[in-house]
Amino acid sequence: MHDDSHAPSEPHSWLDRHGDALYRYALMRVREPAAAEDLVQETLLAALRTHSRFAGESSERTWLIAILKNKVIDHFRRYAHEATLPESEDPDALIDALFEKSSDHWLSFPNAWQNPDTALENSRFWQVFADCMQGLPARQAQAFALTELEGLDTDDLCKVLSVTSSNVWVLLHRARLRLRECLEQRWFDAGKENP
Amino acid sequence: MMLSCKEVSVLLSRACDTRLTWREWLAVRLHLLYCAGCARLERQLAFLRSVGRRVREEAPGETRLPDPARERIRQQLRQEQKP
């Protein structure tokens, strides 16, 4: 599946060879199908314009993903300027419900996860992960996508999302605990009954 | 400094993104010695990290670009390629 040839193929074949992968990449991050489709189109058009500058140092797929990655970050930057209050200003009831009110200790412990590393090789796991990303509130999903999926550090993330570092840490804490809950319920606990 | 599980979860998450002060770090380590729940959380946050690393350069899964979008993009690319 993965394209490792270093010579760029003809532009008209890019859509067939890489369209699905670019779409999945964009969709996991921006979550709205229409926005993901637009990003795939923008990426392929940009690739067409800069085609002659593709040096063949990486595979064609890697080159296209690098273009898409920048488009995704631009998308979030635009979105941040349009959005209103960051969600980190509001309490998150789902996170509060994980802990006892008086002591702030776990109401129930996180479960032990069996063989997490083999999940990474299972395409059904990636569908579950994408669904769990889909379930996050928008700002949490953006913060998580830019940090863990794009590798931005806190300073860059603050600039892209136009928020303070303490906002960012609140968003990331909530995103991680929600994803943890979701993966546990939908994958790790579910796997116990249907191995 | 005795921390609640909620506070430890905040610090474990922040430790993914930045360096904790040594006081924070020590308080977290002490808590993890006797709290199995938070110790699991620490491992699971590391797992989320490896999930993220895996999708930095590839896009696993089976979702496909919907056909109408594919056709629309094909048209756009054709137009762009016209001299």
What does this protein look like?
Chain A has two domains: 11-82, RNA polymerase sigma factor, region 2, helix turn helix motif (Rna Polymerase Sigma Factor, Chain: A), CATH 1.10.1740; 87-193, Orthogonal Bundle (Arc Repressor Mutant, subunit A), CATH 1.10.10. Chain A is an all-alpha fold and 195 residues long. Chain A is built from ten helices and no strands. Chain A has helices at residues 14-30, 33-49, 60-82, 93-96, 116-119, 123-134, 138-149, 154-161, 165-188, 190-193. In chain A, helix 2 (33-49) crosses helix 3. In chain A, 64% of the residues lie in helices and 0% in strands. Mean pLDDT of chain A is 87; it is low at 1-5. Chain A starts with 13 loop residues before the first helix and ends with a helix. Chain A is globular. The longest helix of chain A has 24 residues, at 165-188. Chain B has 83 residues and is an all-alpha fold. The model of chain B has no long low-confidence stretch (mean pLDDT 93). Chain B has a domain at 1-57. Chain B has helices at residues 5-15, 22-34, 36-54, 67-81. The interface between A and B is large, with 59 and 47 residues.
In short, what is this structure?
The complex is a heterodimer of chains A (195) and B (83). Chain A has helices spanning 14-30, 33-49, 60-82, 93-96, 116-119, 123-134, 138-149, 154-161, 165-188, 190-193. By secondary structure, chain A is mostly helical.
Which key features would you list for this structure?
heterodimer; A: 195 residues; mainly alpha; Rna Polymerase Sigma Factor, Chain: A; Arc Repressor Mutant, subunit A; 2 domains; 10 helices; 0% strand; B: 83 residues; 70% helix
Q: What order do the helices and strands come in, and which of them pair?
A:
The complex is a heterodimer of chains A (195) and B (83).
Chain A: H1 14-30, H2 33-49, H3 60-82, H4 93-96, H5 116-119, H6 123-134, H7 138-149, H8 154-161, H9 165-188, H10 190-193
Chain B: H1 5-15, H2 22-34, H3 36-54, H4 67-81
Helix pairs in contact in B: 1-2, 1-3, 2-3
